[in-house]
Amino acid sequence: MDTTPLQDDVLEGKNASRNVQLDETDDSMMADGANMNAKRKTGQGIGKKRQTKEEKMKLMEEKKLKREQEKLQKAALKAEEAERKKLDKEKKKWEKGKFALKSIVAEVDRRIVEQGSTGGHLLSRIVEKGLSFRITSYPIERSIIWSMAVPEELSELTSFQGTEIQYVSIVLEADEFSSLVTAGSFMDHVSRVQTRYSTYTVCYITNRLMSYIHKREQEQYKNLDKSSWRRPPVEEVLAKLTTHFCRVRSRLCVDEAELAEHVVGLTSSLASC
């Protein structure tokens, strides 16, 4: 179809306008794409920054935890070293006898506690003085033997496991001692003790012996016709302990309190030997 020059101009104008619109659309789409790419890159950058910050915080926490662990480990090693030095110092003191009173143990035959009036006073006095005791049973009735024990906290630092002190006391009530003397069996008793404890020093401790004898003498005097009791030769027998035996001695106590005090004092003396 033929067109006039005017129509051609109109068509060219429309085409030019259409081309301009297409160019603008393309430019807009390119701009939108660029913006999206920029936003994507920005988001990625923020994500990387956030990740880097979290990693740094994690590393800082790990370093802090490691420092705290090292600090605790150093403190534990320091405390362990201080405890070791303390134990070494305690061991040296113990070896020099500084803790002797804490280490000595009075091992008391149960018949001293169960029979007679001396047991209660004796144990009470031992406790009052802060000493240690153990109730046990021995072949020789009414005996006390002492031992040195290693304190528990020092037991791993020394090969010494404790030992018995070579000293034994026989605690007799007045009537028991008098009966042995009257029956003529006291010397046999001494020999039996020495056989059992051949290297020990032996001490016979009596309670209220002279008071008992005096009381029986008064009763005999009042009842001369009815009394069959005869005064035992206690002085003679006690004298023979020093003349006929080696390492055998005696102690006459006026009452339970004196007997308990004597045993406590003896315990302290044996600890310092």
UniProtKB/TrEMBL annotation:
Q: Name one GO biological process term.
A: DNA repair
Q: Which domain of life is it from?
A: Eukaryota
Q: Where is this region: Disordered?
A: 1-55
- Name the UniProt key words of this record, in alphabetical order: DNA damage, DNA recombination, DNA repair, Endonuclease, Hydrolase, Magnesium, Meiosis, Metal-binding, Nuclease, Nucleus
Where are stretches of biased composition, namely Basic residues? Answer: 38-51
State its location(s).
Nucleus
**One GO cellular component, as annotated:** nucleus
Has keyword Hydrolase?
yes
Q: Which cofactor does it need?
A: Mg(2+)
Start and end of every ERCC4 domain?
108-264
Q: What molecular function does GO assign, one term?
A: hydrolase activity
UniProt lists the family membership as follows: Belongs to the EME1/MMS4 family.
Q: What is this protein called?
A: ERCC4 domain-containing protein
